[in-house]
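Predicting holo structure, NAP bound.
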Amino acid sequence: MKIAITGATGFIGRELVRQLERENGIVVFSRNVEKAKSLFPKAEVVAYNPKEGGDWQTKIDGCDGIINLAGAPISQRWTASYKREILESRQIGTRRIVEAIAKASNKPRVLINASAVGYYGTSDTETYTETSAPGSDFLAQVCQAWEKEAEKVREIGVRLVILRLGIVLGKDGGVLAKMITPFRLFAGGPLGSGKQWVSWIHIQDVVGIISQALNNPQLEGVFNATSPNPVTMLQLCQTLGEVLKRPSWLPVPPLALQLLLGEGAQVVLEGQKVLPKRTLEVMRYSYCYPQLKSALEAIFCKGG
Ligand SMILES: NC(=O)c1ccc[n+]([C@@H]2O[C@H](COP(=O)([O-])OP(=O)(O)OC[C@H]3O[C@@H](n4cnc5c(N)ncnc54)[C@H](OP(=O)(O)O)[C@@H]3O)[C@@H](O)[C@H]2O)c1
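Done. Tokens:
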């Protein structure tokens, strides 16, 4: 297959390309061509501006599948203008991709679009599955706007898979990379109250779910890309401490995080318990790492 990927230079995208390029031709759409070329010497790299249509859109023509991961990182201080960027990089970025698909004479068979478990809002007590109602906070609104743009691809007869990603665990990025330094310095601990839910997933399972969504033409709609065993922040920190053989005793106070991340601290201070019901029952995905401890051991003890 010939597969186009946006956001390929990011944490998830780098691992995805590494695995997909073994058996497929890869077209990377990037705002940073030099970086993309040095990361992916075997791929075709296309320069693009995700907010504007243009010549780059013609490169979608003839691709078999599109994986849309691009979006401004949310782990930064949320000023009003940065919040707009978080939203527009996803909403307008996805609109331009769907527009490109509509213009293509040889259309891709599938669009796999990222979304996030932030769709459901946050709660210490509720449990969410793919059919749960959306939340109303900022991230929930961003996810709804993002998914709404992707939905339009169905009107032009292209199969759509939306992945509501949980907190992705892997060696070279994401939340874990940020949590690990204090742990190594013997001062790691729960962020905030520790009672908030962390719906995590190992990066290999993200790649596995995307591969299955690409290859199985029966799969359509929303799938939660989370492990079947979410944990609380306290459990995550305790397990991380066990795996790293470091004590987990010093909670990081919410105020310190809020000073650092502003409203963005919400992402780690509040969480949601999400179960991958359709991913298990409809996709019948078999997880490489359903349990947190073996996922963390694979990352820190076995190198991946
Ligand atoms: N990692 C997680 O735990 C997690 C959880 C839930 C949802 N997600 C979602 O999954 C997607 C991929 O996650 P990730 O962790 O791999 O993200 P990432 O490491 O932040 O990479 C995202 C990529 O998006 C592009 N990008 C960055 N800023 C942008 C902007 N302002 N406008 C347009 N494109 C921009 C960049 O690619 P170029 O510079 O090459 O264009 C970047 O490499 C994201 O949309 C994220 O929100 C991730």
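Residues 80-103 form the longest helix (24 residues).
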